[in-house]
Specification:
Elements (H helix, E strand, L loop, with lengths): L1 H111 L1
Length: 113
């Protein structure tokens, strides 16, 4: 009976060793699959971050250009208005001088008339 028990135990040890080897192989395979999937996930994440950053930089540049254009247009308008204001002041001074001359001429006309 002991021979039968020994055969049974040896057979059990062989089966256990065989399945332990299969278990280690499956664990290694699962670890490799997990590492590969993790790497692929990191690659997708990196690509998405890069895409988002490029989109953000483009949007920022567009907004910056938009406000720079507004500022440039406003500065041009301010300069135009300054020139117009100076021209108006010059015309106003000319009209005031003509008005003084005219009033002076009227006074002289009344005085001598």
């Amino acid at each position: 009976m002991s021979e039968l028990t020994e055969d049974h135990e040896r057979n059990a040890r062989e089966i256990e060793a065989k399945y332990q080897a299969k278990l280690r192989a499956l664990q290694a395979q699962n670890d490799l699959r997990r590492k590969t999937e993790l790497h692929e996930l990191e690659e997708r994440k990196s690509t998405q971050v890069h895409t988002l950053m490029k989109n953000h930089e483009k949007a920022f540049a567009d907004i910056k250009n938009y406000y720079n254009d507004i500022t440039a247009n406003n500065m041009a308008l301010i300069n135009t208005l300054k020139v117009t204001a100076v021209h108006i002041l010059f015309l106003q001074a000319q009209l005031l001088q003509k008005n003084r001359v005219t009033r002076h001429a009227i006074l002289l006309f009344r005085y001598f008339a």
